[in-house]
Amino acid sequence: MEYFRHLMEVVGTSVDGVGVFIVAAGMVAATVRLVSRLRDRAHRSGSYYSLYRQDVGRAILLGLEFLIAGDIIRTVVVAPTLQNVIVLGMIVLIRTFLSLSLQLEIEGKLPWRREVVQEDRN
Length: 122
Known about the structure:
By secondary structure, the chain is mainly α. The chain is built from 3 helices and no strands.
């Protein structure tokens, strides 16, 4: 049982590492896209800042999902005490609020307000 807990600690920490990597790599990719847009004369619309923020926001959103998963793995599997579960709940609430805020900022609407695409059934 101790080996399983240690393994889950490593898995949870690895998932956290992937989340941090996604945020960092996403910021680098967003910056590269910004530079390429600035060099491209065809896209001189002036919306560079908002496009850059959207790209960075998407990277942060995806990274947050991995960070939440890592917290859940480590808390529930490794140390499932009431205090740790309460702390996990608070962390998940804060990160969920951040995710919703970023989603609203990126798309201008909440996730459950997305338009449903209807297929032609003819």
